[in-house]
Specification:
240 residues, Alpha-Beta Plaits, 8-stranded mixed beta sheet, globular
Length: 240
């Protein structure tokens, strides 16, 4: 196992990994929403988007909790909040550790990306390392959850590569993305087993020669027009 892998293993097993910095949240309540609604006519929206005029190639990733509906129904609001906080913050920390950027959470899913324009191989390697690290972190995160009397965590990870367009909204300074890799990540995510990492063919095509990983075609995703898109399970060849 390389020094980088050993350092990461030590990091996710440390108390620091589950130490989330506090920040001042500003929730919008019905009391603050109602005056805004009154100021606008029904045909007016205060949500606007602006797209970049050029596309860029990114590795996009998607991590989704398994059986979240069933889990949500079994937890109180307090425990459910704690459960999602640990999941989303833990995944975000892993993504950041490998140089990725979180775009947003979509309910119980986290969407993220790795820039590849300037250093393509580095960005792709970081993406694959991140996905593998997420699978390895499952037992550690679940141990933390059980210690807090919460259910164990199961999730699926998927990534793909391709051209995306950056988007901004007037409600946030965060960047959002649209494009085929984003759509494919959501589609192929369901082909991963519990705590497995899968990638689409476009990412496989540019990383299949990377010697640190093992790729296994598991299924093809039907994307319509009689076209099937191969999906590959990714594991690390690193030995402990």
């Amino acid at each position: 196992m390389t020094y980088e892998h050993l350092a990461f293993e030590k990091y996710i097993q440390s108390k620091e990994f589950f130490d989330y910095p506090q920040f001042e949240a500003k929730p919008r309540t019905s009391m603050t929403l109602e005056p805004e609604i009154e100021r606008h006519t029904p045909s007016t929206s205060d949500y606007l988007v602006q797209f970049s005029t050029r596309s860029q190639s990114y590795c996009v990733g998607y991590v989704d909790i398994v059986n979240s509906t069933k889990i949500s129904a079994s937890l109180s609001a307090e425990h459910l909040s704690q459960y999602y906080e640990i999941f989303l913050n833990s995944m975000s920390k892993i993504i950041g550790k490998f140089g990725g950027k979180v775009i947003k959470n979509i309910g119980d899913c986290l969407l993220y990306y790795f820039p590849t324009a300037n250093t393509p191989e580095t960005g792709m390697t970081n993406c694959l390392d991140c996905g593998v690290a997420m699978t390895n972190a499952q037992s550690i995160i679940s141990k933390e959850l059980v210690a807090k009397k919460l259910p164990k965590l199961q999730y699926r990870i998927s990534s793909d590569f391709g051209s995306v367009i950056l988007m901004n909204t007037n409600h946030s300074h965060a960047v959002d993305l649209i494009g085929p890799p984003v759509n494919m990540c959501a589609k192929i995510n369901h082909f991963a087993g519990h705590n497995e990492f899968v990638i689409g063919h476009d990412l496989y095509h540019v990383t299949k020669k990377f010697k640190a990983y093992a790729f296994k075609e598991i299924q093809s995703c039907d994307v319509g027009f009689r076209y099937s898109y191969p999906v590959y399970k990714v594991t690390s060849k690193q030995k402990s």
